[in-house]
Amino acid sequence: MQIDFWSDIVCPYCALTDNRLRLALERFEHADEVRIVHRSFQLHPDLPRAGITQRRLLDSHGISEARGEQIFTPIERAARAEGLEPFHALERTLGPTDHAHELLALAADQGRGGEVWTAMFRAHFGQGRELWTIEQVLDFAVEAGLDGEEAAEALRDRRYLARVAADQREAERLGARGMPFITLDGAYAVPGAVGTEELLAAITRAWEAAHPEPRPLPVLGGTAAAACGPDGCVVPPHPAP
Question: Where does the DSBA-like thioredoxin domain start and stop, copy by copy (predicted)?
Fold first, then answer.
């Protein structure tokens, strides 16, 4: 089974979903047969490379400080309840995440996609790390155990730019209007942030749909036909013609 998980590292609901997906799979009996593919979606590609505070971004959209508190305080509370602490969704800086997504694509090619996605979420929301410039992303890459020279070459050559853009187009084609966005075996979509229980239920349903239990075939011609079994043969009351 393949789970495709679109997200952006500056999306707090995506960070929660990353954690909830891990918790759901810990309880899923077929988890060893599940493959998670992380895919990229940039929410704010036009933000300044120097970054902008979350409060200022809200203000630019006409959202008051009080409303901002109402939006982000419950998210931070949920993160703490799920063991993600510290978790700063409001007091942080946002920026364009193209270089970060390109590094994540490199990590995926090395079989470390999920691990590095989680580390990047924790760096941004837990430590307030800014990951908008190549230099910032390369500093993170080395800390995450990736080869710095290889990462630098990939980012400066924009080796993964086309893949990141293709991920975004595919999400939009599938109907994604926000993040996070999950598909299950390409047959079911889970848009937005849902709880661990809901994720587990969705994964279970998708698995059962793809692996139905064998059922006896409908019987035609009656059940009293002549037949032989391990213990001998049965003659029906009216012999078969």
Answer: 2-203
